[in-house]
Design a protein that fits this description.
Blueprint lengths: L2 E2 L2 E12 L3 H10 L6 E6 L1 E3 L2 E3 L11 E8 L1 H15 L4 E10 L7
Antiparallel strand pairs: 1-2, 2-6, 2-7, 3-6, 4-5
Helix pairs in contact: 1-2
Length: 108
């Protein structure tokens, strides 16, 4: 475990998916052993598919969501593979980065 400033290194995975894929992504998080995640719905952005507008009033399935999870690096590989499979034929983006946390027991 690498410690910087008294913090413990982990892996952060962020994925933007359509509302209809949120449940699948959440299941993949759970299967990887993640103890929790953060979800932000109705995100907006500009990508290959053009501009995506948040704030869809009546249809969460067409809105985009940003899901973020932090977990030990040894559990990240399986999750990355699952998310790559999910995104293989769908719209979305995945970002993977090193991060440092102050309470690693929350993520183990």
């Amino acid at each position: 475990m690498d410690e910087t400033w008294g913090l413990s290194q982990m892996t952060r995975i962020e994925v933007v998916v359509s509302g209809e894929d949120v449940a699948v992504a959440a299941d993949l998080f759970s299967e990887s052993g993640a103890r929790g995640f953060t979800a932000v719905s109705n995100v907006s952005g500009l990508g290959h598919g053009g501009h995506h507008q948040g704030r869809l009033l009546f249809n969460q399935r067409d809105a985009l969501a940003l899901l973020t999870v932090v977990l030990p690096a040894e559990r990240a590989g399986t999750l990355v593979e699952g998310l790559r499979s999910l995104l293989g034929n769908r719209s979305g983006v995945m970002l993977v980065s090193d991060t440092w946390v102050s309470r690693p027991e929350y993520f183990r």
